[in-house]
Design goal:
The chain is α+β, with helices and mostly antiparallel strands. The chain has two domains: 243 residues, Electron Transport, Fmn-binding Protein, Chain A (Pnp Oxidase, Chain A, Roll), CATH 2.30.110; 113 residues, UbiD C-terminal domain-like (3-Layer(aba) Sandwich). The strands form five sheets. Strands 5, 6, 7, 8, 9, 10, 11, 14, 15 and 18 form a ten-stranded antiparallel beta sheet that branches. Helix 4 runs parallel beside helix 9. The radius of gyration is 25 Å and the shape is globular. The two termini are 47 Å apart.
């Protein structure tokens, strides 16, 4: 059954011993981040800070910082379940007779059950401020010493395309400039940035609503790499198996999750930029200062006893690693649907998700590894992947030791390395120019004669099965 709200999820974590409450006063400036870093690096629990310094509200961090908590958040026993369930809905049903048509009705009914539902009010409306607005009442964190200031790090940012009216919800950090103004860190490739550009072309301000804290499926959906035009609130409904309730904002024509803890309403003016950053990012480096749109707050609503959730990113592993690995497992079946020869994918946390991909394939013809590289570089957010390693189907891509062994043995750099150019993630700092540069593909598969490899390929060393069974049988006899 879907979580009613964020605190419903927190209550479950508490019951399972996966939440630690900290009663001492703790400073949101750096101190909370250092505590979190030590805890997450040792696989620790979610942290509930009851008394953030100079704040009226408690702060909770590291909610999703383990595979166990991610599975609890999305209410599954295995993260792979979700991708398979998505395929079930995406597989076309083409009924040819009345009986088959009737069989498709339950599927259509379930899909309708996931559509957002609009309500007149909700808990996020318990307190409404149209005047005397101030972000200072919330325990907004500064996470690293050279950050440009405090940043809102788990915002669900809602916009509508001024040309089409389609809704988007993304998660973009927000640099707090003062009590009523923040930056809006819209990367050029994101849908929110597209909505803002479209508004600029029309000479209009773009209305923006920011929800902070909702049930886990809604929060995760804001991070999901969905195709353009797919409503994140519909996806959240699919994940939670029930509609997301949305309520209209007070001062702008947007809707937000009714169960939100905090809502910031406002707008971004066209052609208005301000320096944003630096910010200690998930790459483990500071993302540099740059110009981004400004968000002006016109109204703040929140629950009477609001919780302020935040995430802290930095050198992996951090909480975002578990969110990203969840995305890897959820969307793998969709990638395999488009490239069926893919067996498995690993986006290692050390590669910060968009820098390195390790892919195993069922190799079927000469040059197949290169074909898969090029196909992945043409797909959505996979297009930003800086390095792709392709191995054979029998290789465990989740075992980095085995992958490195295959690279070391199977690769002739002159023959098996592909260098191309193309778009890169905005946070990429090694390229000569922002957001564009080189990419590398490594073909670590077994080479075939039809690929021009004329030598004999050696067999791997493997013990015979009868000796393995003998040693298994006598293991205790050996004194182990």
């Amino acid at each position: 059954m879907a979580y009613k709200d964020l605190r419903n999820f927190i209550e479950l974590l508490k019951k399972k011993g996966l939440l630690k409450r900290i009663t001492a006063e703790v400073d949101p400036v750096l101190e909370i981040a250092e505590i979190n870093d030590r805890v997450v690096k040792t696989g620790g629990s979610a942290l509930f800070f009851e008394k953030p310094k100079n704040s009226k509200f408690p702060c909770v961090v590291n909610l999703f910082g383990s595979y166990e908590r991610m599975k609890l958040a999305l209410e599954v026993d295995s993260l792979d379940e979700i991708g398979l369930r998505m395929l079930e809905f995406l597989e076309p049903d083409i009924p040819t007779n009345l009986i088959e048509k009737l069989k498709t009705l339950p599927k259509l009914k379930r899909l309708a059950d996931f559509l957002p539902k609009y309500v007149n009010s909700g808990p996020c409306k318990e307190v409404i401020f149209r005047e005397n607005l101030s972000l200072n009442v919330f325990p907004i964190l500064k996470t690293w010493p050279d950050d440009g200031g405090r940043f809102i790090t788990l915002p669900m940012v809602f916009t509508k395309d001024p040309e089409t009216g389609s809704r988007n919800c993304g998660m973009y950090r927000m640099h707090v400039y003062d009590e009523r103004t923040t930056g809006m860190h819209w990367h050029m490739h994101k849908d929110g940035a597209k909505h803002y550009r479209n508004a600029e072309k029309l000479g209009k301000r773009l209305e923006v609503a920011v929800a902070i804290g909702s049930d886990p499926a809604v929060m995760y959906s804001a991070t999901a790499p969905l195709p353009e035009g797919v409503d994140e609130m519909l996806f959240a409904g699919f994940l939670r198996k029930s509609s997301v309730e949305l309520v209209k904002c007070e001062t702008i024509d947007l809707e937000v999750p009714a169960n939100s803890e905090i809502v910031l309403e406002g707008y971004c003016e066209p052609n208005e930029r301000r320096i944003e950053g630096p910010f200690g990012d998930h790459t483990g480096y500071y993302s540099l200062k740059d110009e981004f749109p400004m968000f002006h707050i016109t109204c703040i609503t929140h629950r009477k006893d609001a919780l302020y959730p935040a995430t802290i990113v930095g050198k992996p592993p951090m909480e975002d690693c578990y969110i990203a690995k969840t995305t890897e497992r959820i969307f793998l079946p969709l990638i395999k649907k488009q490239i069926p020869e893919i067996v498995d994918i690993n986006l290692p946390v050390e590669g910060v998700f968009h820098n390195i991909a390790i892919v195993s394939i069922d190799k079927r013809y000469p040059g197949h590894a290169r074909r898969v590289m090029y196909a992945l570089w043409g797909m959505g957010q996979m297009s930003f992947t800086k390095m792709i390693v392709v191995v054979d189907r029998w290789v465990d891509v989740q075992n980095p030791g085995e992958v490195i062994w295959r690279i070391g043995n199977n690769v002739d750099p002159k023959r098996d390395i592909v260098i191309v150019e193309g778009p890169l993630d905005v946070l990429e700092h090694a390229s000569d120019i922002p957001s564009y540069g080189g990419k590398m593909g490594i073909d670590a598969t077994k080479k075939w004669k039809s690929e021009g490899f004329l030598r004999e390929w050696p067999d791997e060393i493997v013990m015979s099965e009868d000796i393995k069974r003998l040693v298994d049988k006598r293991w205790k006899e050996y004194g182990f």
